[in-house]
Amino acid sequence: MMRKIEHIGIAVKNLEESIKNYTLILGVPCYKREKVESEYVETAFFLTGENKIELLEAKHPDSAIAKFLEKKGEGIHHIAFDVEDIFKEMERLKLEGYTLLNEQPKRGADNKLICFVHPKETNGVLMELCQEIR
Fold first, then answer.
1. Cβ neighbours for 87, distance < 8 A, ≥ 6 positions apart
2. Start and end of every VOC domain (predicted)?
């Protein structure tokens, strides 16, 4: 079961400029920056109330974010949902016929295990499952 929206991921061309922009827009500073080597991205997180925004900048031309930016430009890349047990949720979605973009959860930013659900089956929205690493 998906408990809540964990964050909204936004693909950006320039992380430094985007951090300045979102700091002004949201009225709060970026609370965390992190490189995710496995995904070839650098991220920046903002917290407004209970809501999180993740900015993602590609660090390699072969990264999913680089390909997204090339195809669609800057904008919302994914919506992440908090789950209690990512393994159970992945199995449930597979049994329901959804295509997962990875067979096993992988380590993502912000101390999370993550898995993506193919957007062809979710009305064009890339969905990310997130579980806090305990």
1. 105
2. 4-132
Distance CA 130, CA 111 (A): 9
Cβ atoms of 16 and 95 closer than 8 Å:
no
**CA 48 to CA 81: how far, in whole Å?**
17
3-state helix, strand, coil in the chain (%, to 5): 30, 45, 30
Torsion 55-60-63-67 (CA) sign: positive
pLDDT tens, 15-49?
999 999 999 999 999 999 999 998 999 999 999 99
pTM summary value: 0.93
